Prior knowledge:
The structure holds two protein chains of two kinds.
Chain A lengths: L1 H11 L14 H38 L2 H6 L3 E2 L6 E2 L2 H32 L2 H15 L3 H19 L11 H25 L3 H9 L4 H12 L1 H17 L2 H6 L17 H10 L7 H35 L1
Antiparallel strand pairs in A: 1-2
Helix pairs in contact in A: 2-13, 4-7, 4-10, 5-7, 6-7, 7-10, 8-9, 10-13, 12-13
Chain B lengths: L6 H61 L6 H4 L13 H32 L5 H13 L4 H13 L9 H25 L3 H9 L4 H30 L2 H5 L20 H9 L4 H32 L4
Helix pairs in contact in B: 1-11, 3-6, 3-8, 3-10, 5-6, 6-8, 7-8, 8-11, 10-11
Amino acid sequence: xxxxxxxxxxxxxxxxxxxxxxxxxxxxxxxxxxxxxxxxxxxxxxxxxxxxxxxxxxxxxxxxxxxxxxxxxxxxxxxxxxxxxxxxxxxxxxxxxxxxxxxxxxxxxxxxxxxxxxxxxxxxxxxxxxxxxxxxxxxxxxxxxxxxxxxxxxxxxxxxxxxxxxxxxxxxxxxxxxxxxxxxxxxxxxxxxxxxxxxxxxxxxxxxxxxxxxxxxxxxxxxxxxxxxxxxxxxxxxxxxxxxxxxxxxxxxxxxxxxxxxxxxxxxxxxxxxxxxxxxxxxxxxxxxxxxxxxxxxxxxxxxxxxxxxxxxxxxxx
Amino acid sequence: xxxxxxxxxxxxxxxxxxxxxxxxxxxxxxxxxxxxxxxxxxxxxxxxxxxxxxxxxxxxxxxxxxxxxxxxxxxxxxxxxxxxxxxxxxxxxxxxxxxxxxxxxxxxxxxxxxxxxxxxxxxxxxxxxxxxxxxxxxxxxxxxxxxxxxxxxxxxxxxxxxxxxxxxxxxxxxxxxxxxxxxxxxxxxxxxxxxxxxxxxxxxxxxxxxxxxxxxxxxxxxxxxxxxxxxxxxxxxxxxxxxxxxxxxxxxxxxxxxxxxxxxxxxxxxxxxxxxxxxxxxxxxxxxxxxxxxxxxxxxxxxxxxxxxxxxx
Lengths: 318, 313
Protein backbone atom coordinates (compact mmCIF):
# COMPACT_ATOMS: atom_id res chain seq x y z
CA UNK A 1 0.00 0.00 0.00
CA UNK A 2 2.67 2.43 1.07
CA UNK A 3 4.59 1.83 -2.16
CA UNK A 4 1.58 3.11 -4.12
CA UNK A 5 1.89 6.45 -2.41
CA UNK A 6 5.63 6.67 -2.96
CA UNK A 7 5.28 5.79 -6.63
CA UNK A 8 2.55 8.29 -7.33
CA UNK A 9 4.22 11.16 -5.51
CA UNK A 10 7.46 10.52 -7.37
CA UNK A 11 5.64 10.78 -10.67
CA UNK A 12 3.59 13.85 -9.97
CA UNK A 13 5.74 15.58 -7.39
CA UNK A 14 2.60 16.25 -5.32
CA UNK A 15 1.56 15.04 -1.85
CA UNK A 16 -0.04 11.59 -1.91
CA UNK A 17 -3.81 11.47 -1.92
CA UNK A 18 -4.80 9.99 1.46
CA UNK A 19 -6.79 6.76 1.36
CA UNK A 20 -10.15 7.43 2.97
CA UNK A 21 -11.64 3.98 2.66
CA UNK A 22 -11.00 1.30 5.30
CA UNK A 23 -7.88 -0.79 4.85
CA UNK A 24 -9.79 -4.04 5.46
CA UNK A 25 -13.38 -5.06 4.73
CA UNK A 26 -14.14 -4.98 8.51
CA UNK A 27 -16.28 -8.10 8.59
CA UNK A 28 -16.29 -7.94 12.40
CA UNK A 29 -17.97 -4.53 12.33
CA UNK A 30 -20.60 -5.86 9.97
CA UNK A 31 -21.23 -8.91 12.13
CA UNK A 32 -21.67 -6.70 15.19
CA UNK A 33 -24.06 -4.43 13.36
CA UNK A 34 -26.01 -7.51 12.21
CA UNK A 35 -26.22 -8.86 15.77
CA UNK A 36 -27.43 -5.52 17.12
CA UNK A 37 -29.99 -5.31 14.33
CA UNK A 38 -31.20 -8.79 15.32
CA UNK A 39 -31.76 -7.56 18.90
CA UNK A 40 -33.87 -4.69 17.59
CA UNK A 41 -35.81 -6.88 15.17
CA UNK A 42 -36.67 -9.26 18.03
CA UNK A 43 -39.29 -6.76 19.15
CA UNK A 44 -41.04 -7.11 15.83
CA UNK A 45 -40.83 -10.89 16.20
CA UNK A 46 -42.46 -10.60 19.64
CA UNK A 47 -45.34 -8.62 18.19
CA UNK A 48 -45.73 -11.18 15.41
CA UNK A 49 -45.69 -14.00 17.95
CA UNK A 50 -48.35 -12.24 20.02
CA UNK A 51 -50.57 -11.76 16.97
CA UNK A 52 -50.09 -15.35 15.78
CA UNK A 53 -50.63 -16.90 19.20
CA UNK A 54 -53.84 -14.87 19.61
CA UNK A 55 -55.10 -15.34 16.06
CA UNK A 56 -54.92 -19.11 15.56
CA UNK A 57 -57.03 -20.15 18.58
CA UNK A 58 -59.35 -17.19 17.95
CA UNK A 59 -60.06 -18.48 14.44
CA UNK A 60 -60.82 -21.92 15.82
CA UNK A 61 -63.03 -20.25 18.46
CA UNK A 62 -65.05 -18.51 15.77
CA UNK A 63 -65.60 -21.82 14.01
CA UNK A 64 -67.77 -22.76 16.98
CA UNK A 65 -69.21 -19.38 17.95
CA UNK A 66 -70.39 -16.79 15.45
CA UNK A 67 -68.70 -13.38 15.78
CA UNK A 68 -72.15 -11.78 16.01
CA UNK A 69 -73.12 -13.93 18.96
CA UNK A 70 -69.74 -13.22 20.59
CA UNK A 71 -69.90 -9.44 20.20
CA UNK A 72 -73.60 -8.84 20.84
CA UNK A 73 -74.57 -11.63 23.24
CA UNK A 74 -75.49 -10.53 26.75
CA UNK A 75 -74.77 -13.73 28.62
CA UNK A 76 -71.26 -14.91 29.46
CA UNK A 77 -71.08 -18.52 30.64
CA UNK A 78 -68.32 -20.26 28.68
CA UNK A 79 -67.75 -23.00 31.25
CA UNK A 80 -71.35 -24.11 31.61
CA UNK A 81 -72.65 -27.30 30.01
CA UNK A 82 -75.08 -25.11 28.10
CA UNK A 83 -72.36 -22.64 27.22
CA UNK A 84 -73.05 -19.07 26.17
CA UNK A 85 -70.43 -16.75 24.69
CA UNK A 86 -71.85 -13.23 24.75
CA UNK A 87 -68.86 -11.02 25.57
CA UNK A 88 -70.85 -7.88 26.46
CA UNK A 89 -71.05 -8.48 30.23
CA UNK A 90 -67.27 -8.68 30.59
CA UNK A 91 -66.72 -5.76 28.21
CA UNK A 92 -69.18 -3.63 30.19
CA UNK A 93 -67.51 -4.84 33.40
CA UNK A 94 -64.14 -3.68 32.07
CA UNK A 95 -65.55 -0.32 30.97
CA UNK A 96 -67.20 0.18 34.37
CA UNK A 97 -63.81 -0.26 36.06
CA UNK A 98 -62.26 2.21 33.59
CA UNK A 99 -65.10 4.67 34.21
CA UNK A 100 -64.62 4.73 38.00
CA UNK A 101 -60.86 4.79 37.59
CA UNK A 102 -61.01 7.86 35.33
CA UNK A 103 -63.52 9.62 37.62
CA UNK A 104 -60.80 9.49 40.28
CA UNK A 105 -57.68 9.81 38.18
CA UNK A 106 -58.56 12.60 35.71
CA UNK A 107 -59.19 15.43 38.23
CA UNK A 108 -56.51 14.29 40.67
CA UNK A 109 -53.93 13.46 37.99
CA UNK A 110 -54.49 16.67 36.02
CA UNK A 111 -54.40 18.83 39.15
CA UNK A 112 -51.07 17.24 40.10
CA UNK A 113 -49.80 17.68 36.54
CA UNK A 114 -50.77 21.37 36.35
CA UNK A 115 -49.30 22.02 39.79
CA UNK A 116 -46.01 20.34 38.89
CA UNK A 117 -45.73 22.04 35.51
CA UNK A 118 -46.89 25.59 36.32
CA UNK A 119 -46.86 26.23 40.06
CA UNK A 120 -44.37 23.99 41.86
CA UNK A 121 -41.13 25.64 43.00
CA UNK A 122 -38.11 23.76 41.67
CA UNK A 123 -37.21 22.29 45.05
CA UNK A 124 -40.73 20.91 45.57
CA UNK A 125 -40.81 19.49 42.06
CA UNK A 126 -37.49 17.76 42.60
CA UNK A 127 -38.96 15.86 45.55
CA UNK A 128 -42.49 15.17 44.34
CA UNK A 129 -41.73 14.00 40.82
CA UNK A 130 -39.51 11.05 41.89
CA UNK A 131 -41.89 10.31 44.79
CA UNK A 132 -44.76 9.89 42.33
CA UNK A 133 -42.52 7.73 40.12
CA UNK A 134 -41.75 5.42 43.03
CA UNK A 135 -45.42 5.27 44.06
CA UNK A 136 -46.27 4.37 40.45
CA UNK A 137 -44.14 1.27 40.95
CA UNK A 138 -46.30 -0.22 43.71
CA UNK A 139 -47.12 -3.77 42.54
CA UNK A 140 -50.74 -4.07 41.49
CA UNK A 141 -51.29 -7.11 43.70
CA UNK A 142 -50.62 -4.84 46.70
CA UNK A 143 -53.18 -2.35 45.40
CA UNK A 144 -55.68 -5.18 44.92
CA UNK A 145 -55.22 -6.38 48.50
CA UNK A 146 -55.59 -2.79 49.75
CA UNK A 147 -58.83 -2.41 47.77
CA UNK A 148 -60.28 -5.69 48.99
CA UNK A 149 -59.33 -5.49 52.65
CA UNK A 150 -59.30 -1.73 53.32
CA UNK A 151 -61.17 0.32 50.68
CA UNK A 152 -64.17 -2.01 50.45
CA UNK A 153 -65.06 -1.89 54.21
CA UNK A 154 -64.23 1.84 54.21
CA UNK A 155 -66.65 2.43 51.31
CA UNK A 156 -69.41 0.61 53.17
CA UNK A 157 -68.83 2.74 56.28
CA UNK A 158 -68.76 5.93 54.23
CA UNK A 159 -71.81 5.14 52.09
CA UNK A 160 -74.05 2.91 54.23
CA UNK A 161 -77.16 3.80 52.19
CA UNK A 162 -75.86 1.86 49.17
CA UNK A 163 -76.71 -1.79 48.92
CA UNK A 164 -73.40 -3.61 49.57
CA UNK A 165 -73.32 -7.37 49.03
CA UNK A 166 -70.35 -9.64 49.44
CA UNK A 167 -66.68 -8.68 49.46
CA UNK A 168 -66.48 -7.51 45.82
CA UNK A 169 -67.42 -4.21 44.24
CA UNK A 170 -66.69 -2.82 40.78
CA UNK A 171 -66.72 0.75 42.12
CA UNK A 172 -64.09 0.05 44.76
CA UNK A 173 -61.94 -1.85 42.25
CA UNK A 174 -62.28 1.08 39.84
CA UNK A 175 -61.19 3.60 42.46
CA UNK A 176 -58.14 1.46 43.28
CA UNK A 177 -57.25 1.24 39.58
CA UNK A 178 -57.72 5.02 39.50
CA UNK A 179 -55.09 5.41 42.24
CA UNK A 180 -52.79 3.25 40.15
CA UNK A 181 -53.07 5.41 37.01
CA UNK A 182 -52.84 8.84 38.69
CA UNK A 183 -49.01 9.01 38.34
CA UNK A 184 -49.29 8.16 34.65
CA UNK A 185 -51.72 11.02 33.97
CA UNK A 186 -49.82 13.54 36.08
CA UNK A 187 -46.46 12.64 34.59
CA UNK A 188 -47.46 12.75 30.90
CA UNK A 189 -49.62 15.88 31.27
CA UNK A 190 -46.79 17.56 33.19
CA UNK A 191 -44.40 16.77 30.31
CA UNK A 192 -46.92 18.08 27.78
CA UNK A 193 -47.45 21.38 29.61
CA UNK A 194 -43.73 21.90 30.19
CA UNK A 195 -43.07 21.52 26.48
CA UNK A 196 -45.30 24.53 25.78
CA UNK A 197 -42.82 27.30 24.92
CA UNK A 198 -42.45 29.96 27.60
CA UNK A 199 -42.99 32.65 24.97
CA UNK A 200 -46.70 31.85 25.01
CA UNK A 201 -46.80 32.31 28.79
CA UNK A 202 -44.81 35.53 28.70
CA UNK A 203 -47.04 36.92 25.97
CA UNK A 204 -50.10 36.29 28.10
CA UNK A 205 -48.50 37.83 31.19
CA UNK A 206 -47.54 40.90 29.16
CA UNK A 207 -51.20 41.36 28.27
CA UNK A 208 -52.03 41.40 31.97
CA UNK A 209 -53.23 37.82 32.42
CA UNK A 210 -53.03 36.25 35.87
CA UNK A 211 -51.25 32.97 36.61
CA UNK A 212 -54.62 31.22 36.77
CA UNK A 213 -55.57 32.50 33.32
CA UNK A 214 -52.18 31.63 31.84
CA UNK A 215 -52.44 28.08 33.19
CA UNK A 216 -56.03 27.40 32.17
CA UNK A 217 -56.48 29.49 29.01
CA UNK A 218 -53.01 29.39 27.45
CA UNK A 219 -50.92 26.46 28.63
CA UNK A 220 -53.69 23.90 29.08
CA UNK A 221 -55.21 24.38 25.59
CA UNK A 222 -51.74 24.49 24.03
CA UNK A 223 -50.89 21.14 25.64
CA UNK A 224 -54.29 19.56 25.04
CA UNK A 225 -53.07 16.86 22.65
CA UNK A 226 -50.57 15.62 25.23
CA UNK A 227 -53.18 15.76 27.96
CA UNK A 228 -55.66 13.74 25.90
CA UNK A 229 -52.86 11.27 25.17
CA UNK A 230 -52.20 10.94 28.91
CA UNK A 231 -55.87 10.13 29.57
CA UNK A 232 -56.10 7.65 26.69
CA UNK A 233 -52.93 5.86 27.82
CA UNK A 234 -54.24 5.74 31.38
CA UNK A 235 -57.58 4.33 30.21
CA UNK A 236 -55.74 1.71 28.18
CA UNK A 237 -53.67 0.79 31.24
CA UNK A 238 -56.88 0.50 33.27
CA UNK A 239 -58.42 -1.82 30.66
CA UNK A 240 -55.38 -4.10 30.84
CA UNK A 241 -55.14 -4.15 34.63
CA UNK A 242 -55.63 -7.64 36.01
CA UNK A 243 -54.62 -8.19 39.64
CA UNK A 244 -56.66 -5.37 41.19
CA UNK A 245 -59.87 -6.47 39.48
CA UNK A 246 -59.19 -10.16 40.16
CA UNK A 247 -58.93 -9.42 43.88
CA UNK A 248 -61.49 -6.64 44.33
CA UNK A 249 -64.11 -6.87 41.58
CA UNK A 250 -65.04 -10.52 41.90
CA UNK A 251 -65.81 -13.06 39.22
CA UNK A 252 -69.50 -12.83 38.39
CA UNK A 253 -70.20 -11.78 34.79
CA UNK A 254 -73.11 -9.46 35.63
CA UNK A 255 -74.29 -7.00 33.02
CA UNK A 256 -74.84 -4.07 35.37
CA UNK A 257 -73.80 -0.48 36.02
CA UNK A 258 -74.28 -0.72 39.80
CA UNK A 259 -70.99 0.32 41.47
CA UNK A 260 -71.54 -2.01 44.43
CA UNK A 261 -72.02 -5.10 42.28
CA UNK A 262 -69.49 -7.83 41.64
CA UNK A 263 -68.53 -8.08 37.97
CA UNK A 264 -66.04 -9.89 35.74
CA UNK A 265 -63.60 -8.05 33.46
CA UNK A 266 -61.90 -9.38 30.34
CA UNK A 267 -58.52 -9.54 32.07
CA UNK A 268 -59.96 -11.18 35.19
CA UNK A 269 -61.66 -13.79 33.02
CA UNK A 270 -58.36 -14.66 31.34
CA UNK A 271 -56.46 -14.76 34.63
CA UNK A 272 -59.11 -16.77 36.43
CA UNK A 273 -59.74 -19.29 33.63
CA UNK A 274 -56.09 -19.92 32.87
CA UNK A 275 -55.45 -20.57 36.57
CA UNK A 276 -57.75 -23.59 36.60
CA UNK A 277 -57.00 -26.86 34.87
CA UNK A 278 -58.06 -26.45 31.30
CA UNK A 279 -57.34 -28.77 28.39
CA UNK A 280 -55.73 -27.51 25.17
CA UNK A 281 -57.97 -27.55 22.11
CA UNK A 282 -61.24 -27.27 24.00
CA UNK A 283 -63.57 -24.38 23.33
CA UNK A 284 -62.93 -23.05 26.88
CA UNK A 285 -59.23 -22.90 26.10
CA UNK A 286 -59.85 -21.02 22.85
CA UNK A 287 -62.15 -18.58 24.67
CA UNK A 288 -59.14 -17.22 26.59
CA UNK A 289 -57.52 -16.31 23.31
CA UNK A 290 -60.64 -14.79 21.76
CA UNK A 291 -61.03 -12.50 24.78
CA UNK A 292 -57.27 -11.82 24.72
CA UNK A 293 -57.50 -10.84 21.04
CA UNK A 294 -60.31 -8.40 21.81
CA UNK A 295 -58.29 -6.94 24.68
CA UNK A 296 -55.20 -6.64 22.48
CA UNK A 297 -57.06 -4.90 19.64
CA UNK A 298 -58.74 -2.50 22.06
CA UNK A 299 -55.57 -1.45 23.88
CA UNK A 300 -53.47 -1.34 20.70
CA UNK A 301 -55.96 1.04 19.07
CA UNK A 302 -55.93 3.34 22.09
CA UNK A 303 -52.15 3.25 22.44
CA UNK A 304 -51.52 4.00 18.76
CA UNK A 305 -53.90 6.95 18.97
CA UNK A 306 -52.09 8.24 22.07
CA UNK A 307 -48.64 7.77 20.53
CA UNK A 308 -49.74 9.80 17.49
CA UNK A 309 -51.04 12.60 19.73
CA UNK A 310 -47.82 12.71 21.75
CA UNK A 311 -45.80 12.87 18.55
CA UNK A 312 -47.93 15.78 17.40
CA UNK A 313 -47.22 17.98 20.40
CA UNK A 314 -43.54 17.08 20.16
CA UNK A 315 -43.50 18.15 16.52
CA UNK A 316 -45.24 21.43 17.19
CA UNK A 317 -43.10 22.61 20.04
CA UNK A 318 -39.70 21.01 19.75
CA UNK B 1 -35.65 74.39 34.21
CA UNK B 2 -39.09 73.28 33.06
CA UNK B 3 -39.29 76.22 30.70
CA UNK B 4 -36.04 75.25 28.99
CA UNK B 5 -37.44 71.95 27.87
CA UNK B 6 -39.16 71.62 24.54
CA UNK B 7 -42.90 71.37 24.96
CA UNK B 8 -43.08 67.98 23.20
CA UNK B 9 -41.00 66.25 25.93
CA UNK B 10 -43.26 67.53 28.65
CA UNK B 11 -46.23 66.24 26.73
CA UNK B 12 -44.60 62.81 26.36
CA UNK B 13 -43.94 62.63 30.08
CA UNK B 14 -47.51 63.48 30.80
CA UNK B 15 -48.70 60.79 28.39
CA UNK B 16 -46.43 58.16 29.93
CA UNK B 17 -47.58 59.02 33.44
CA UNK B 18 -51.18 58.85 32.32
CA UNK B 19 -50.69 55.47 30.63
CA UNK B 20 -48.93 54.12 33.69
CA UNK B 21 -51.77 55.23 35.94
CA UNK B 22 -54.36 53.77 33.59
CA UNK B 23 -52.55 50.43 33.44
CA UNK B 24 -52.15 50.30 37.20
CA UNK B 25 -55.80 51.14 37.53
CA UNK B 26 -56.85 48.43 35.08
CA UNK B 27 -54.71 45.82 36.83
CA UNK B 28 -55.96 46.85 40.26
CA UNK B 29 -59.66 46.88 39.41
CA UNK B 30 -59.66 43.39 37.90
CA UNK B 31 -57.38 41.94 40.54
CA UNK B 32 -59.81 41.33 43.38
CA UNK B 33 -61.95 38.72 41.68
CA UNK B 34 -58.96 37.28 39.87
CA UNK B 35 -57.06 36.93 43.11
CA UNK B 36 -59.90 34.88 44.59
CA UNK B 37 -60.22 32.63 41.53
CA UNK B 38 -56.47 32.21 41.46
CA UNK B 39 -56.34 31.24 45.12
CA UNK B 40 -59.23 28.79 44.78
CA UNK B 41 -57.61 27.22 41.74
CA UNK B 42 -54.27 26.91 43.51
CA UNK B 43 -55.99 25.32 46.50
CA UNK B 44 -57.72 22.84 44.18
CA UNK B 45 -54.40 21.90 42.60
CA UNK B 46 -52.82 21.31 46.00
CA UNK B 47 -55.85 19.27 47.03
CA UNK B 48 -55.43 17.12 43.90
CA UNK B 49 -51.74 16.55 44.50
CA UNK B 50 -52.40 15.86 48.18
CA UNK B 51 -55.05 13.28 47.29
CA UNK B 52 -52.67 11.59 44.87
CA UNK B 53 -49.82 11.36 47.37
CA UNK B 54 -52.06 10.46 50.31
CA UNK B 55 -53.99 7.83 48.32
CA UNK B 56 -50.88 6.09 47.06
CA UNK B 57 -48.97 6.41 50.32
CA UNK B 58 -51.91 4.96 52.26
CA UNK B 59 -51.48 1.71 50.30
CA UNK B 60 -47.98 1.45 51.76
CA UNK B 61 -48.97 2.53 55.26
CA UNK B 62 -51.97 0.20 55.40
CA UNK B 63 -49.89 -2.79 54.25
CA UNK B 64 -47.32 -2.11 56.98
CA UNK B 65 -49.94 -1.73 59.70
CA UNK B 66 -51.94 -4.77 58.57
CA UNK B 67 -48.98 -7.09 58.06
CA UNK B 68 -46.70 -5.92 60.87
CA UNK B 69 -48.00 -8.59 63.26
CA UNK B 70 -46.78 -11.40 61.02
CA UNK B 71 -43.45 -9.86 60.19
CA UNK B 72 -40.56 -11.98 61.40
CA UNK B 73 -37.83 -14.24 60.11
CA UNK B 74 -40.22 -17.17 59.67
CA UNK B 75 -42.05 -15.25 56.93
CA UNK B 76 -38.96 -15.76 54.78
CA UNK B 77 -37.85 -19.15 56.05
CA UNK B 78 -41.17 -21.04 56.23
CA UNK B 79 -42.81 -22.62 53.22
CA UNK B 80 -46.40 -21.90 52.17
CA UNK B 81 -49.38 -23.61 53.72
CA UNK B 82 -53.04 -23.60 52.81
CA UNK B 83 -54.01 -24.76 56.31
CA UNK B 84 -51.87 -22.91 58.85
CA UNK B 85 -51.73 -19.19 58.10
CA UNK B 86 -50.05 -18.59 61.49
CA UNK B 87 -46.93 -20.49 60.51
CA UNK B 88 -46.99 -20.20 56.71
CA UNK B 89 -44.35 -18.16 54.92
CA UNK B 90 -43.02 -17.27 51.51
CA UNK B 91 -39.72 -19.19 51.23
CA UNK B 92 -40.40 -21.12 48.03
CA UNK B 93 -42.08 -18.14 46.40
CA UNK B 94 -39.18 -15.81 47.23
CA UNK B 95 -36.76 -18.34 45.75
CA UNK B 96 -39.03 -18.66 42.72
CA UNK B 97 -39.01 -14.88 42.27
CA UNK B 98 -35.21 -14.79 42.54
CA UNK B 99 -34.82 -17.54 39.92
CA UNK B 100 -37.28 -15.87 37.56
CA UNK B 101 -35.56 -12.50 37.96
CA UNK B 102 -32.08 -13.93 37.33
CA UNK B 103 -33.41 -15.33 34.05
CA UNK B 104 -35.00 -11.99 33.22
CA UNK B 105 -31.67 -10.20 33.78
CA UNK B 106 -29.81 -12.65 31.53
CA UNK B 107 -32.38 -11.98 28.82
CA UNK B 108 -33.00 -8.25 28.97
CA UNK B 109 -29.51 -6.87 29.48
CA UNK B 110 -27.95 -8.09 26.21
CA UNK B 111 -31.13 -7.87 24.14
CA UNK B 112 -32.28 -4.51 25.50
CA UNK B 113 -28.89 -2.82 25.29
CA UNK B 114 -28.22 -4.35 21.86
CA UNK B 115 -31.48 -3.06 20.45
CA UNK B 116 -30.90 0.37 22.00
CA UNK B 117 -27.38 0.60 20.52
CA UNK B 118 -28.68 -0.36 17.11
CA UNK B 119 -31.48 2.19 17.18
CA UNK B 120 -29.32 5.04 18.48
CA UNK B 121 -25.96 4.43 16.80
CA UNK B 122 -26.63 2.52 13.60
CA UNK B 123 -30.24 2.88 12.48
CA UNK B 124 -30.95 5.25 9.62
CA UNK B 125 -34.29 6.84 10.46
CA UNK B 126 -35.00 7.44 6.79
CA UNK B 127 -35.37 3.69 6.28
CA UNK B 128 -38.91 2.46 6.80
CA UNK B 129 -37.94 -0.70 8.65
CA UNK B 130 -36.17 1.27 11.36
CA UNK B 131 -39.25 3.42 11.85
CA UNK B 132 -41.36 0.25 12.05
CA UNK B 133 -39.08 -1.17 14.77
CA UNK B 134 -39.26 2.06 16.72
CA UNK B 135 -43.05 2.35 16.54
CA UNK B 136 -43.34 -1.33 17.35
CA UNK B 137 -41.34 -0.95 20.57
CA UNK B 138 -43.51 1.99 21.66
CA UNK B 139 -46.62 -0.09 21.05
CA UNK B 140 -45.23 -3.18 22.81
CA UNK B 141 -44.66 -1.08 25.92
CA UNK B 142 -48.41 -0.54 26.12
CA UNK B 143 -49.58 -4.13 25.61
CA UNK B 144 -51.37 -5.35 28.78
CA UNK B 145 -49.23 -7.71 30.83
CA UNK B 146 -51.81 -10.47 30.73
CA UNK B 147 -51.50 -10.57 26.93
CA UNK B 148 -47.83 -11.44 27.45
CA UNK B 149 -49.13 -14.24 29.64
CA UNK B 150 -51.16 -15.52 26.70
CA UNK B 151 -48.06 -15.31 24.52
CA UNK B 152 -46.14 -17.23 27.16
CA UNK B 153 -48.81 -19.90 27.40
CA UNK B 154 -49.21 -20.40 23.65
CA UNK B 155 -45.62 -19.88 22.49
CA UNK B 156 -43.28 -20.65 25.37
CA UNK B 157 -45.06 -23.11 27.69
CA UNK B 158 -46.71 -24.94 24.82
CA UNK B 159 -46.32 -24.41 21.08
CA UNK B 160 -42.94 -23.79 19.41
CA UNK B 161 -40.73 -23.64 22.52
CA UNK B 162 -42.71 -26.20 24.56
CA UNK B 163 -40.85 -25.59 27.84
CA UNK B 164 -43.76 -26.58 30.08
CA UNK B 165 -44.88 -24.73 33.22
CA UNK B 166 -41.38 -24.02 34.51
CA UNK B 167 -39.28 -21.15 35.85
CA UNK B 168 -37.53 -20.66 32.50
CA UNK B 169 -40.88 -20.05 30.77
CA UNK B 170 -41.73 -17.43 33.39
CA UNK B 171 -38.34 -15.72 32.90
CA UNK B 172 -38.86 -15.55 29.15
CA UNK B 173 -42.42 -14.24 29.47
CA UNK B 174 -41.61 -11.53 32.00
CA UNK B 175 -38.36 -10.71 30.18
CA UNK B 176 -40.21 -9.98 26.95
CA UNK B 177 -42.73 -7.95 28.94
CA UNK B 178 -40.14 -5.55 30.39
CA UNK B 179 -37.84 -5.51 27.35
CA UNK B 180 -39.42 -2.36 25.81
CA UNK B 181 -38.87 -0.50 29.11
CA UNK B 182 -35.18 -1.40 29.06
CA UNK B 183 -34.77 -0.44 25.40
CA UNK B 184 -36.43 2.94 25.91
CA UNK B 185 -34.33 3.74 29.01
CA UNK B 186 -31.09 2.55 27.40
CA UNK B 187 -31.79 4.63 24.30
CA UNK B 188 -32.21 7.75 26.41
CA UNK B 189 -28.95 7.06 28.22
CA UNK B 190 -27.08 6.54 24.94
CA UNK B 191 -28.67 9.61 23.33
CA UNK B 192 -27.47 11.76 26.24
CA UNK B 193 -23.83 11.19 25.20
CA UNK B 194 -22.90 14.22 23.09
CA UNK B 195 -22.22 13.89 19.37
CA UNK B 196 -18.75 15.41 19.78
CA UNK B 197 -17.50 12.38 21.76
CA UNK B 198 -18.34 10.14 18.82
CA UNK B 199 -16.93 12.54 16.25
CA UNK B 200 -13.70 12.79 18.20
CA UNK B 201 -13.25 9.03 18.33
CA UNK B 202 -14.15 8.56 14.68
CA UNK B 203 -11.77 11.36 13.63
CA UNK B 204 -8.93 9.55 15.40
CA UNK B 205 -9.59 6.52 13.25
CA UNK B 206 -11.71 4.40 15.56
CA UNK B 207 -14.26 2.15 13.90
CA UNK B 208 -17.96 2.54 14.63
CA UNK B 209 -17.95 -0.34 17.12
CA UNK B 210 -14.76 0.87 18.82
CA UNK B 211 -16.39 4.28 19.23
CA UNK B 212 -19.57 2.76 20.62
CA UNK B 213 -18.00 0.19 22.91
CA UNK B 214 -15.09 2.24 24.27
CA UNK B 215 -16.45 5.80 24.31
CA UNK B 216 -20.23 5.86 24.26
CA UNK B 217 -21.20 2.79 26.30
CA UNK B 218 -18.94 3.36 29.34
CA UNK B 219 -20.44 6.81 29.82
CA UNK B 220 -23.98 5.57 29.28
CA UNK B 221 -23.68 2.66 31.74
CA UNK B 222 -25.20 4.42 34.81
CA UNK B 223 -28.25 5.47 32.78
CA UNK B 224 -28.64 2.02 31.26
CA UNK B 225 -28.25 0.38 34.67
CA UNK B 226 -30.93 2.65 36.13
CA UNK B 227 -33.31 1.57 33.37
CA UNK B 228 -32.47 -2.09 33.94
CA UNK B 229 -33.05 -1.83 37.69
CA UNK B 230 -36.41 -0.12 37.20
CA UNK B 231 -37.41 -2.84 34.72
CA UNK B 232 -36.40 -5.54 37.21
CA UNK B 233 -38.40 -3.78 39.92
CA UNK B 234 -41.41 -3.96 37.65
CA UNK B 235 -40.70 -7.62 36.86
CA UNK B 236 -40.58 -8.51 40.57
CA UNK B 237 -44.06 -7.14 41.20
CA UNK B 238 -45.63 -8.61 38.07
CA UNK B 239 -48.20 -11.32 38.77
CA UNK B 240 -50.80 -11.37 35.98
CA UNK B 241 -48.80 -13.01 33.17
CA UNK B 242 -47.41 -15.58 35.60
CA UNK B 243 -50.91 -16.84 36.34
CA UNK B 244 -50.94 -18.18 32.78
CA UNK B 245 -47.46 -19.69 32.70
CA UNK B 246 -47.79 -21.85 35.78
CA UNK B 247 -46.74 -19.82 38.82
CA UNK B 248 -50.01 -20.66 40.56
CA UNK B 249 -48.76 -24.00 41.77
CA UNK B 250 -48.85 -24.15 45.56
CA UNK B 251 -45.17 -25.04 45.56
CA UNK B 252 -44.11 -26.46 48.92
CA UNK B 253 -40.64 -27.36 47.65
CA UNK B 254 -37.82 -25.14 46.40
CA UNK B 255 -38.05 -24.49 42.65
CA UNK B 256 -35.68 -25.59 39.91
CA UNK B 257 -35.25 -23.88 36.58
CA UNK B 258 -36.35 -26.35 33.92
CA UNK B 259 -38.70 -28.68 35.75
CA UNK B 260 -41.43 -28.83 38.31
CA UNK B 261 -43.85 -26.34 39.77
CA UNK B 262 -42.86 -22.97 41.15
CA UNK B 263 -44.48 -19.88 42.51
CA UNK B 264 -43.37 -16.26 42.84
CA UNK B 265 -43.81 -13.73 45.62
CA UNK B 266 -46.65 -11.63 44.07
CA UNK B 267 -48.52 -14.71 42.88
CA UNK B 268 -48.41 -16.31 46.33
CA UNK B 269 -49.54 -12.99 47.83
CA UNK B 270 -52.48 -13.10 45.41
CA UNK B 271 -53.17 -16.69 46.39
CA UNK B 272 -53.24 -15.83 50.12
CA UNK B 273 -55.17 -12.59 49.55
CA UNK B 274 -57.97 -14.32 47.67
CA UNK B 275 -58.73 -16.62 50.61
CA UNK B 276 -61.63 -15.50 52.77
CA UNK B 277 -59.96 -15.98 56.20
CA UNK B 278 -58.64 -12.85 57.91
CA UNK B 279 -55.35 -14.59 58.90
CA UNK B 280 -54.45 -15.18 55.26
CA UNK B 281 -55.01 -11.53 54.42
CA UNK B 282 -52.65 -10.52 57.22
CA UNK B 283 -50.15 -13.01 55.84
CA UNK B 284 -50.61 -11.51 52.34
CA UNK B 285 -50.02 -8.02 53.75
CA UNK B 286 -46.82 -9.27 55.39
CA UNK B 287 -45.77 -10.62 51.98
CA UNK B 288 -46.49 -7.20 50.47
CA UNK B 289 -44.15 -5.65 53.07
CA UNK B 290 -41.35 -8.04 52.06
CA UNK B 291 -41.93 -7.19 48.40
CA UNK B 292 -42.11 -3.44 49.05
CA UNK B 293 -38.87 -3.48 51.05
CA UNK B 294 -37.19 -5.28 48.16
CA UNK B 295 -38.57 -2.78 45.63
CA UNK B 296 -37.76 0.24 47.77
CA UNK B 297 -34.16 -0.93 48.09
CA UNK B 298 -33.88 -1.36 44.32
CA UNK B 299 -35.54 1.95 43.51
CA UNK B 300 -33.35 3.84 45.96
CA UNK B 301 -30.29 2.21 44.46
CA UNK B 302 -31.45 3.27 40.98
CA UNK B 303 -32.02 6.86 42.10
CA UNK B 304 -28.65 6.93 43.89
CA UNK B 305 -26.94 5.54 40.80
CA UNK B 306 -28.56 8.16 38.61
CA UNK B 307 -27.64 11.03 40.91
CA UNK B 308 -24.15 9.80 41.74
CA UNK B 309 -22.87 8.91 38.30
CA UNK B 310 -24.93 11.17 36.13
CA UNK B 311 -22.56 13.04 33.85
CA UNK B 312 -23.15 16.67 32.99
CA UNK B 313 -21.80 17.70 29.60
